């Protein structure tokens, strides 16, 4: 099956399973989404959603968050992985938004990527989910599934992003990003995966991937 045909069929399956996938990180605006995505690195969305309500009750705008000390921020997010570094970056990015962007999250992916603690994936999530701009955020999970399904070579996340953008229409990128994340959690784990029982892997995964899973 050609990659494009495979992508089309995968899209149909994902639409049936997740017709309107919600954003898993609780937020109220672009800034709180940005902070939540920064916190989600090396931490589950569930854990992030446990700590952000108290943090955002204390400070939900760039100016108020920048006014907190690293220690105060750390006290709210301590249970998240890499918490000390995240506390430092969150305070710095809040201050940068105040100083350089008039207190508003920039609606520009390059400007977002220059913020402390914000990489390409985080910037892509904010652009697509907060501003509705076409972006396909590829994390390690999407990277893994794209290779497993034969949609990308799996060389690196940058190549996977380019491949997926070619296979799916721009207007579907934000939705596909969320759908693949939900599908991976529910049907397609990294280890001990039942390829034959998977709605997508049962027909899309290559023999090489199946063999690697059995080793």
CATH superfamily of the largest domain: Hypothetical protein, domain 2
Average residue-wise pLDDT: 94
Summarize the amount of helix as a percent range: 55-70%
- If helices are DSSP runs of H or I spanning 4 or more residues, what is the number of helices? 13
How many strands, which pairing sense, and closed or not: the largest β-sheet?
none
Strand content: under 5%
Unreliably modeled segments: none
Structural class: mainly alpha
- In the CATH hierarchy, what is the architecture of the largest domain at level 2? Orthogonal Bundle
- Could you spell the SSE succession in H and E letters? HHHHHHHHHHHHH
At the fold tier of CATH, the topology name of the largest domain is Endonuclease III, domain 1
Question: What would you note in describing this structure?
Answer:
There is one protein chain. The chain has two domains: 3-21 and 137-214, Orthogonal Bundle (Endonuclease Iii, domain 2), CATH 1.10.1670; 30-129, Hypothetical protein, domain 2 (Endonuclease III, domain 1, Orthogonal Bundle), CATH 1.10.340. Helix 1 crosses helix 11 (173-186) and helix 2 packs antiparallel against helix 8. The chain is mostly helical. It contains 13 helices and no strands.
């Amino acid at each position: 099956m050609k990659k494009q045909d495979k992508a089309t069929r995968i899209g149909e399956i994902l639409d049936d399973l997740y017709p309107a996938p919600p954003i898993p990180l609780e937020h109220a605006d672009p800034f709180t989404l940005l902070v939540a995505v920064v916190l989600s690195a090396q931490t589950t969305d569930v854990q992030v959603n446990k700590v952000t309500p108290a943090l955002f009750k204390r400070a939900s705008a760039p100016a108020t968050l920048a006014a907190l000390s690293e220690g105060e921020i750390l006290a709210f997010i301590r249970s998240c992985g890499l918490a000390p570094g995240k506390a430092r970056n969150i305070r710095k990015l809040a201050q940068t938004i105040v100083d350089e962007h008039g207190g508003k999250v920039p609606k520009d992916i390059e400007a977002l990527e220059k913020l402390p603690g914000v990489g390409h994936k985080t910037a892509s999530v904010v652009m697509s989910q907060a501003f509705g701009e076409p972006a396909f955020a590829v994390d390690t999970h999407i990277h893994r599934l794209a290779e497993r399904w034969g949609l990308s070579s799996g060389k690196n996340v940058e190549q996977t992003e380019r491949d997926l953008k070619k296979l799916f229409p721009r207007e579907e990128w934000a939705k596909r990003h969320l759908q693949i994340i939900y599908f991976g959690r529910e049907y397609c784990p990294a280890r001990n995966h039942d390829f034959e029982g998977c709605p997508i892997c049962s027909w899309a995964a290559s023999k090489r991937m199946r063999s690697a899973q059995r080793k």
